[in-house]
Every structure is written in structure tokens, then in C-alpha cells.
Amino acid sequence: MAEVTREIIEEAIKGYIEPHLETDLVSAKSVKDVAIDGDKVKVSVVLGFPAKGIFDDVAAAVKAAVEGVDGVGSCDVDVSSKIVAHSVQKSLKPIDNVKNIIAVASGKGGVGKSTTAVNLALALSAEGARVGILDADIYGPSQPRMLGISGKPESKDGNTLEPMMSYHLQAMSIGFLIDEETPMIWRGPMVTQALEQLLNDTNWDELDYLVIDLPPGTGDAALTLTQQAPLSGAVIVTTANDLSLIDARKGLTMFEKVGVPVLGIVENMSYFTPPDLPDRRYHIFGQGGGERTARELGVDFLCEIPIDPRVVEGGDKGSPIVLEAPDSDVAAAFHGLAGKVARKLAVLAEATPQIADANITWVSS
Ligand SMILES: Nc1ncnc2c1ncn2[C@@H]1O[C@H](COP(=O)(O)OP(=O)(O)OP(=O)(O)O)[C@@H](O)[C@H]1O
Ligand SMILES: [Mg+2]
Predict the structure, then answer these.
(1) Which residue, 104, 106, 323, 353, is most buried by CB atoms nearer than 10 A?
(2) pTM value?
(3) C-beta separation of 173 from 180 below 8 A
(4) Can you tell me the distance from the alpha carbon of 249 to that of 257, in angstroms, rounded to the nearest whole number?
(5) CB of 239 closer than 6 A to ligand 1?
(6) Is 329 near ligand 1, meaning CB less than 6 Å away?
(7) What percent of the chain clears pLDDT 90, i.e. is strictly above it?
(8) pLDDT for the residue numbered 330
(9) Within a 10 A sphere around the Cβ of 312, how many other Cβ atoms?
(10) pLDDT at 25 over 80
(11) Cα–ligand 1 centroid distance for 337 (angstroms)
């Protein structure tokens, strides 16, 4: 009988392409240990992204692949995740305690950026990651309402702020610090400074992912963040009509200029399925626009998110749809999105190790 070696085992595991990773586990550097004892094999797989939901599938696929090897009697597989930190823009230093920062952006307002940010954060958290959300929309903060948080953050030392907690998310928003009734008049430098403080002076507690709900458009506040927050990647939200797509293009250019990888485009409010006609899809804003733009711009199309009135209700009462209607198609779309985003970041992180060559952090202009 042929001798069983690590190489042979890895070759067998390579035959399994993890569907979301779009590559095999050996190439993704996820196979950590292979212990061979006679005809018994033990494989330990460590995924670079949170994936509680697929641990069993991965274990079963690896087990089947290894047990198919000549000379192997049985195989035990242990699957876990360890989220890796990704590199950020060259001149910036990552923030302590935050492994990956994901910006959720849009070229224009009202396309569902805040909705996407909060549900993406909750879906990542559901897979077992430690997640925070930073509401960087200085002019119209919506995360306090969406997460049902009221009250003010504590400061233990007079300089830093403790994040507010909601549904296991660590959250920070200008909305916690200002009076909702008093409109704020922000000028450029004040915006920069406020954003800098919210990001850097919050005591984030060991985050795998910090999702930033960016202000709409490509104005000062959004630009400040893309230039000065150490981002791992960006997600651009659009709707299917042409105008939104032109705006999505602007958003994309903004990230490309500063070297932040655009993870892809999300098309929100893609179609409506009436509850009494579950097989119908009405494409109210047109069909296929997000996918077409993604193709034209050479970035990935991440997902379509259907229209569901429960998104609005959940947002208004502080219970985002991923929690409010976990069985809905919208919730499923957000879970799918979280899986893709996390896997893309894991692959990027393996490809480009953390750059920490400069001692520069946020600089106020
Ligand atoms: N898939 C959806 N189905 C139904 N309603 C939605 C959906 N996505 C977002 N909405 C609703 O559309 C409105 C705008 O969404 P949201 O506040 O997330 O957008 P935004 O891009 O953050 O807006 P702004 O530019 O004002 O910050 C909200 O009332 C939200 O509940
Ligand atoms: Mg918003």
C-alpha cells in the first residue's frame, strides 16, 4: 500500500473548491495541520473569515476528500476561523484593536447605505466575528435609531469614548453626542476632526471588522474618510436606475484614487416580490443595472437585495431586518453579502500582508 504523506492529503483536499472562496483550501492557506497516524488522519482547517454557518460543510467535504485517498482509513477534521488583518493604504497605520475596516459607500443618498451597513455588520457578527459599526454620517446619523440605542457613551478617562452596545455590536455615532433637535453646522475642518475622533478615540474592543456607514456621495466628509481611515476595502451600494449607477461610478473612482480595494457593488431595492405571489419578481427600478455597471467597471457584483417593507419598519424601531425577519429573502441576501465580503478580505489579506511601514495615523487637515 502506498505511504500516505501530507502532500498526498493536500492534493486530495485541493480537489474541493470552497464555493465562496472560489479556490481550494490549500491555496487559500487554510489547511494548517495534517497529522498522519497509520491509516488515521487528522486535518485542522483554519478559515480566514467568520463562517460558523459552513463549518460542517467544509468538514464533511475535507473528510470525504481525504477518506478517498488510497491507504486512509478514517479522517477527523477540525474547522475553526481566525480573521486576518488586511493591509491598508500605504501611508496609514492600522488602528489598534481593529483588524479590518470596511467602508459602505454610495454615490448618492437614500440608496440604502445605512441599511446595508447595519445588516452587513449583524450578519458578520452572526458568523461569530467581533464587529463594530461607525456611523460616519455626520450630517444625518441614522445608526442610533436603526440599532435602537439612546443615551450617551461613557468616557472613563475623559479622552476616549466607550462604544455603545447593541445586539453584540460595538457602535459609535455622532448621533450619540449631539442633540437630535439641534442641527449642526459643520465646516470642513470640523468634520475631519469629528470623524477622526469618532474613529480613533473610541475604545474599540478587539474588533475583527469595523463597518463604516459613510456619508452619502463623494463630498468632503466621504473623501476625508477614504483618505485618512485605514480601510481594508469598500462596498458600494446602488439601486438599479441609471442615475444611481453614474453615482456609483463616482464612488468607485474615489476609492481607486486612494488605493482602497473595492470589494464590489451591491444593488439594493432590486425587485419586489408580493407576499401573495412568491414566484414573482417586479423589477421596479429596472433590471440588471448593478451587474452591468460592475462588469463595465471591472469590479464584482456582490448581490441583489429585494425590496421589503419590513426593512423600513425594522429600521424605524431599532430592529434591523436580519434580526427582525431572519427568514426573509432580504436577510438571506445580507448573510450572503457578509460571507462574500469576509472571504474576499481573507483572500486579499493572504495576498497582501499587513503594511505597517509608516508611523502615520489620522492627520487632520
Ligand atoms: N431593501 C429595502 N427595502 C425596503 N426599504 C428599504 C430597503 N433598503 C432601504 N430601505 C429604506 O429606504 C430608506 C433609505 O435607506 P437608508 O437610510 O439605509 O439609505 P442611505 O443610503 O443610508 O440614506 P442617506 O443617504 O440618507 O444616509 C430607509 O427608509 C430604509 O428603511
Ligand atoms: Mg444613511
Answers:
(1) 106
(2) 0.87
(3) no
(4) 12
(5) no
(6) no
(7) 51
(8) 97
(9) 12
(10) yes
(11) 17
> Best of 312, 319, 324, 337 to mutate for ligand 1, by most ligand atoms within 8 A of CB?
312
Q: Are 106 and 248 in contact (CB under 8 A)?
A: yes
Instruction: Match 474615489 to its residue by C-alpha cell.
Output: 254
What pLDDT sits at residue 192? 77
Runs of H (alpha helix) within the chain = 6-14, 55-67, 113-126, 143-146, 188-200, 220-228, 242-257, 289-297, 309-316, 321-324, 329-351
Q: Measured from the CB, is residue 114 less than 6 Å from ligand 1?
A: yes
Instruction: Give the closest ligand to the alpha carbon of residue 106.
Output: 1
Most distant CA atoms of the chain, gap in Å: 79
The reply to whether ligand 1 has any atom less than 6 angstroms from the CB of 107 is no
Q: For ligand 1, say whether the CB of 269 is within 6 Å of any of its atoms.
A: yes
Q: Pick from 349, 324, 29, 8: which is nearest to 209 by CA?
A: 349
Task: With beta carbons less than 8 A apart as the criterion, state whether 132 and 209 touch.
Answer: yes
Helix axes 242-257, 289-297, angle to 10 degrees: 30
Beta bridge partners of 308: none
- To which residue does cell 474541493 refer? 16
Cβ of 308 closer than 6 Å to ligand 1, yes or no, is yes
Query: 228 falls in which pLDDT band (50, 70, 90)?
Result: confident
C-alpha grid cell for residue 90?
500605504
The SS3 assignment for 314 reads helix
What secondary structure does DSSP assign to 23-54, as a single string? EETTTTT-EEEEEEETTEEEEEEEESS--GGG
